[in-house]
Design a protein that fits this description.
The complex is a heterodimer of chains A (255) and B (309). Chain A is mainly α and 255 residues long. Chain A has ten helices and no strands. Helices cover 76% and strands 0% of the residues of chain A. A six-stranded mixed beta sheet of chain B has the order 6-7-8-3-9-10, sandwiched between helices. Chain B is elongated and about 80 Å long. Classes of the chains: A mainly alpha (255), B alpha/beta (309). Chains A and B meet through helix 1 and helix 4 of A and helix 2 and helix 3 of B.
């Protein structure tokens, strides 16, 4: 059957418009938080740690912080939008419309990608005050930024649909998203870890987003960026499939 | 001609609770249809299944011939739903919400004129640019109606639209519903104000505990009541009435007494005769036809075997 392109586009626009209406909270606050990390960690550790030869700790840290901010905001975007719509009851307006599960999924995930890219751009530009950081492979940077945000956007849709209360959503965020993003080599290289933690990190899909993204910026990484990209794409496929199946079944939203 | 709504053997349960137990009926094109029932009867559940907001366990629902699951796009395009709860998106003002809704249905700018027309018709013109949270309940209800109409659906479902709404707004809503009906829309109304159904609906289904206990034209339903009422105005308020009349008295206030007569067992002639015998002089006799309320109580209570109904 013919796609409802306008329906999809309207939902996408609405989702972007929603977070732009509260831009302080959705773009500026996360940017400031990230910069605080940067100031603290880069100040303390500058000169003491050199992860890759010839690359300052600040230059190593910034790309990690940028993609971490993108990831966390991407998750927050779709999950909080959905849970709010569920709690307020206004999700019915979308559910009443002739919008397919694919259109629903793409609208939410792409709006999330837009939020991720905006947060990332703001953090990066602000970080330039502290460190000179040219981008080695812009295409790779964009690719990881989009795929990483999309993964977290889809995870956010899953969490937003699954959670019936705000504290369940907070639990999802605090026990899954935060640990996975912190324990993924934002602040250190995996090669500095003990063997067990190194192995554990290789099982963390977030590590590949961060490592690949960092490669795009500084040109060096722990893992071949193409391998990282492959892992990320596979992860995106799995998360998207789960998301689409949930939507198709109407899990929790078409009770 | 395809029915506007076809409901075939629909079952739905929530855990141990059977919300719908095999609902089966049709609503014809252009009908003004009433779905009545006490709270918790399953009216909203049935409407949600029609709208695809809930999936039935078993059975099928078609809107203008389109299955709500398989042909969901056409089915949803054919249906406008005004939900029972006064929901809204706090991020957007009234016009923004309506335009978004129109967009979800695949309409672009060409539909903006229709949205403005809806705002005018529902007296919302001056509220178009305000946020929903500043609006009263009645105003929110009107916005929801406009929102249900943005895609010009041939079938409009109103789930308890006048619950908690003042008299004036109720009049506006009724006028609007009547006009849509005259324009050829099929209207499905759920309400627990029976007076409302009596005034508006041509055909009525009474739902109780998940089953249809009556489905008929309004006239046929009304004639089902085994009772009718007779109001007598006595010349002398103090008169002592015989037992044969006292057992029929439902209400007595000064000179006026209301009797409840069974269609078959109690004859008005006999009552008048008895009155004459005891010397009661009548100033006036007025028969009151039964209202939907009676029929409703009769049907929904008898089934449960409740006393005092
Ligand atoms: N999502 C739900 N979960 C559990 N029970 C529900 C749910 N929705 C409705 N019910 C129950 O189903 C029955 C029918 O409810 P509803 O269709 O809202 O009735 P009505 O609209 O006629 O008042 C009620 O007993 C209600 O408590
Ligand atoms: Mg209801």
């Amino acid at each position: 059957m013919r796609a409802n392109t306008i329906g999809f586009y309207t939902l996408f626009t609405k989702e972007v418009w929603r977070f732009l209406k509260v831009i302080t909270q959705t773009i500026l606050t996360p940017a400031v938080t990230t910069l605080l990390y940067l100031v603290v960690f880069a100040q303390i550790l500058e000169g003491r740690v050199e992860v890759y030869e010839g690359i300052s700790y600040a230059a190593f840290l910034v790309p990690g912080l940028v993609i971490m901010a993108m990831i966390q905001n991407a998750f927050a975007n779709s999950s909080s939008s959905l849970i709010q719509s569920k709690m307020n009851g206004n999700l019915v307006f979308v559910l009443l419309a002739p919008i397919s599960v694919w259109e629903f999924y793409l609208a939410f995930v792409l709006a999330t990608v837009v939020r991720g890219l905006l947060v990332g751009a703001v953090v990066y530009v602000a970080a330039l005050w502290f460190v000179t950081l040219p981008i080695h492979h812009p295409a790779l940077v964009l690719l990881f930024a989009v795929v990483g945000s999309a993964i977290l956007g889809a995870l956010g849709v899953i969490a937003g649909i699954w959670a019936s209360k705000y504290d369940q959503l907070a639990a999802f965020q605090n026990f899954i998203v935060l640990p996975l993003s912190f324990l993924s080599g934002v602040f250190y290289s995996v090669h500095t870890l003990p063997p067990f933690w190194q192995q554990a990190t290789f099982w963390n899909p977030f590590f590949y987003m961060i490592d690949g993204f960092r490669h795009g910026v500084i040109g060096v990484s722990d893992v071949d960026p193409w391998k990282s990209l492959l892992v990320c794409l596979l992860f995106l496929a799995v998360v998207s499939a789960v998301c689409l199946v949930m939507l198709k079944k109407g899990y929790k939203i078409r009770g | 001609m395809t029915s506007a709504v076809t409901i075939a053997e629909v079952h739905k349960h929530y855990g141990a609770l059977y919300a719908l137990r095999g609902i089966d009926f049709e609503i014809k094109q252009g009908e003004f249809f009433g779905l009545l029932g006490p709270n918790g009867a399953g009216k909203s559940t049935l409407i949600n299944i029609m709208a695809g907001l809930t999936y039935a366990d078993r059975g099928a629902v078609r809107i203008n011939g389109f299955d709500v699951r398989r042909d969901y796009r056409q089915a949803r395009r054919a249906l406008g739903v005004v939900p029972q709860e006064l929901v809204y998106d706090p991020f957007f003002d009234v016009r923004e919400m309506l335009r978004l809704q129109s967009g979800y249905f695949g309409f672009g700018r060409e539909n903006h004129a229709w949205i403005d027309e809806l705002l005018e018709t529902l007296n919302l013109g001056d509220k178009a640019d305000v946020n929903m949270y500043t609006l009263s309940g009645g105003m929110k209800r009107r916005v929801l109606i406009a929102q249900a109409m943005v895609h010009k659906p041939p079938v409009l479902v109103l789930d308890e639209p006048t619950a908690g709404v003042d008299v004036e707004l109720r009049q506006i809503l009724w006028r609007f519903a009547r006009r849509l009906h005259q324009d050829g829309h099929t209207i499905v109304l759920t309400t627990h104000y029976l007076e409302e159904a009596e005034q508006l609906c041509e055909r009525i289904a009474i739902l109780d505990q998940g089953s249809i206990c009556a489905l008929d034209t309004k006239q046929a339903l009304l004639s089902r009541s085994p009772y009718r009422r007779v109001r007598l105005t006595l010349a002398d308020a103090a008169i002592e009435l015989p037992e044969s009349i006292l057992r029929l008295v439902e209400e007595r206030e000064a000179q006026s007494i209301t009797l409840r007569l069974h269609r078959l067992d109690d004859q008005l002639g006999a009552v008048l005769e008895a009155m004459h015998q005891c010397g009661g002089r009548l100033l006036d006799v007025h028969t009151v036809e039964p209202g939907l309320e009676e029929v409703f109580m009769e049907l929904t209570c008898r089934k449960r075997g409740e006393v005092g109904c």
